[in-house]
Amino acid sequence: MTSWTGFSKKTPQERLEKLLTEKVLSQERVQELRTGATLPVTTANQMAENVLGTFALPYAVVPDFYVNGKDYLVPFVTEEPSVVLAASFAAKIIKHSGGFTTLIHERLMIGQVALYGLADQVAAQELIKKAETELIELANQAYPSIVKRGGGARAVTTAIKEDFLIVYLSVDTQEAMGANMLNTMLEAISGRLEDLTGGECLMAILSNYATESLVTAKCQIPFRYLSRDRSEAGTIAKKMALASDLAQADPYRASTHNKGIFNGIDAVVLATGNDWRAIEAGAHAYAARDGQYRGLSTWAIDKEQNLLKGQLTLPMPIATKGGSIGLNPTVAASFDLLQEPTAKELASIIVAVGLAQNFAALKALVSTGIQAGHMKLQAKSLALLAGAKEEEVAPLVKHLTEAKIFNLENAQEILKKIRQDKK
Ligand code: NDP
Predict the structure, then answer these.
(1) Which pLDDT value is given to residue 35?
(2) How many beta carbons lie within 10 A of that of residue 236, not counting itself?
(3) Which CATH number fits the domain that encloses residue 388?
């Protein structure tokens, strides 16, 4: 089994060499990453409007994610210091604890046709129910390629929401997220729905509240991995469970709790070329499903077995095909790192990443505090902003951390002194 110990201490070039030696990435991919040959402007210009160029962000990898008995190298795109470090730390501890297990509850996308102006909403519901098979056929005829791939429309349901009768279409979109598939199918059935019910269609569109694409990730961590000191380990576990309760009780905390989860999730969603707004929108709606916005993950302790048990459930309608996925060479590198997962496998990895990120954040919050690690990384950003050269960063970070004054003016002042002392 490949060991990734010391990977974080290497230079970017050395990390690429290691991935090449381990046959994770091809020579061609390594060359693309080494030269920063990412998205060609000509391609970018086809993807969005009024394009001027492309916009770069750090592209990193986190080894040792052990999910459902398989090891993964997970690509992260993030501008935030400490996210990759925290994920690596959590992934290692959780791997030693047996890794993550995940459950895909279902993988269907939901779209809706909103009808209004109906004389009798309940009677209209009955008519739609009777026409379900016909409506499914109509939807499938509008997008035959997904049927050929083994997917297609699966069910039609309805709900009365004030003056609207909403018709929901559930579709198996296979490896795609399915926005365009759903929208095509919905528009194809909206005319027939108007004929059936006498109502008018206000809109026909996919819903990002993907409650039929729920994924759960779980892990359980022996207390002993939380601290070398036995009694401190038990206290940390208890406090992490309390922190989880807090995120259920207080929306102000829940929002930050979930932001921490998305530090990891967004990083992988971006790296795999997926629509992160869609994933965020669905997850935040799910976090408020009972009327109060709550933490998406929960942690509890098993006192008898000295285990901390974590769990995260959220909608994860992630894709491995479609959208802009095939257009970006760095996205191709991400799929190489992940060993070409299926959409279900990728969804499992991403939810596991969210749980790992949450573990690291909660552990830091209830023990050392989040600032200890953060300030060191903040100092690094300040050093770069102050204009420190590569060899000047480490001494400047050291001085800033000792001085405990983390602002740009101080960083510039210290840098000046370092340079004067060198003369
Ligand atoms: P696409 O429109 O790109 O459709 C999926 C494509 O993937 C199809 O061309 C399909 O080919 C191809 N494909 C290849 N292999 C497979 C496979 N095994 N399973 C499924 N499809 C396969 O993407 P989506 O419909 O998924 O829509 C996603 C895009 O829509 C994203 O870019 C998103 O940002 C955007 N969007 C999002 C909205 C929202 O979230 N509310 C609204 C509107 C757009 P074939 O046709 O031959 O089957």
Answers:
(1) 85
(2) 20
(3) 1.10.8.660
Give pLDDT tens digits for 261-303: 999 999 999 999 999 999 999 999 999 999 999 999 999 999 9
Tell the residue nearest (CA) to atom 32 of ligand 1.
323
Distance from Cα 206 to the centre of ligand 1, integer Å: 12
Is 236 domain-assigned? Answer: yes
Count of structural domains within the chain: 3
Question: 98 and 126 in contact (C-beta within 8 Å)?
Answer: no
Specify whether 162 is catalytic: no
Residue 224: count of CB within 10 angstroms of its CB: 14
Token pair of 64 as six digits: 């040792």
Closest to 88 in 3D by CA, of 360, 310, 375: 360
259 noted as active-site residue: yes
Choose one of 174, 275, 277, 280 to mutate for the ligand 1 pocket test, by most ligand atoms within 8 angstroms of C-beta.
275
Structure tokens at 118: 């109906």
Per the listing, tokens 């279902």 go with: 106
Distance CA 331, CA 268 (A): 10
Residues 95, 152 share a domain: no
Q: Residues 268, 272, 277, 280: what is their CA dihedral angle, to the nearest 10 degrees?
A: -30
Return d(Cα 342, Cα 196) in angstroms, integer. Answer: 39
Q: In terms of Cα–Cα distance, which of 176, 125, 131, 169 is closest to 150?
A: 176
Q: Do the beta carbons of residue 194 and residue 200 sit within 8 Å?
A: yes
| 292, 251 contact by CB (below 8 A) | yes
Q: Are residues 197 and 60 in the same domain?
A: no
What does the pLDDT read at residue 423? 78
Residue 374 designated active-site = yes
Find the radius of gyration of the CA atoms of the chain: 25
152 — pLDDT class (breaks 50, 70, 90): very high
Provide the domain limits for residue 270.
38-105+213-368
